Amino acid sequence: MVEVLFATTNPAKIQKYKDRLESKNNNIKVLTLKDLSRTIDVDENGKDCMENAYIKAKAYNDFTGYITIGMDNSLFIEELPDEKQPGTHVRRVGGKTLTDDEMIEYYSNLTKEYGGRLTAKWVYGMVVIKGNEKEEYTWTKDHFYFVDKVNDLRNPGYPLDSMSIMPSVNKYFVELTKEEKDSLNRNKNEEDVIEFLEKSIMKLTK
């Protein structure tokens, strides 16, 4: 059994990748620092999502010795000027780390300020590290929309799902069925991400 550490405390992110990776390869077990009863504070000061993914993975790997997965994402909004772009600071606004509810409040107010709808895009970076060895992968979630009318449903760890509309099905992300998510994931490189993780982990195990 290969035990790997996921450098995140986001419960939704952990569950999503843990379940899919362990289902694909039952010789891989995904752990978090909570499983190890340890804590670490990482300064995510990279210039983009790939640098932040590396910073997190490297810090966790150095701290524990486990092969580590680091992941980060950047948010770009078409209608906003450069100085208002969230970039890698999606949850950190004005020097404060926002809760899920505070994120919804901030981004829904921002959307309202710009007419009630904003065109958004996520860019993701993922790094798998063992010592000085690393594997990297990046992908994009195509344009979708933020709306200022917030859905009552919540997806803990992914608060913006409550105000994000997927144009292809015209539904809030938080309302998508498992079948719709699976269909969209197949179109959004998610299977490629899981394949990247499996291959990288097995390569670094050798």
Describe the structure.
The chain has 206 residues and is an alpha+beta fold. The protein has a single domain (2-205), classed as Maf protein, CATH 3.90.950.10. Helices cover 36% and strands 28% of the residues. The protein is built from six helices and nine strands. It has helices at residues 11-24, 33-36, 49-64, 100-113, 178-187, 190-205; strands at 2-6, 28-31, 67-77, 92-93, 96-97, 117-130, 133-147, 164-166, 171-172. The strands form two sheets. It has a seven-stranded mixed sheet with strand order 2-1-3-6-7-8-9. It has a two-stranded antiparallel ribbon with strand order 4-5. Helix 1 (11-24) packs across helix 6 (190-205). The longest helix is centred in the N-terminal third of the chain and has 16 residues, at 49-64. The two termini are 13 Å apart. 25% of the residues are buried.
Give a quick precis of the structure.
The chain is α+β, with helices and mostly antiparallel strands.
Task: Tag the structure with descriptive keywords.
206 residues; alpha+beta; Maf protein; 7-stranded mixed sheet; 9 strands; 36% helix; globular
Number of domains: 1
Described by strand count, sense and barrel closure, the largest sheet is: 7 strands, mixed
- Kindly name the structural category: alpha+beta
- CATH class call: Alpha Beta
The CATH topology annotation reads as Maf protein
Write the layout of secondary structure elements.
Blueprint: E1 2-6, H1 11-24, E2 28-31, H2 33-36, H3 49-64, E3 67-77, E4 92-93, E5 96-97, H4 100-113, E6 117-130, E7 133-147, E8 164-166, E9 171-172, H5 178-187, H6 190-205
Parallel strand pairs: 1-2, 1-3
Antiparallel strand pairs: 3-6, 4-5, 6-7, 7-8, 8-9
Helix pairs in contact: 1-6
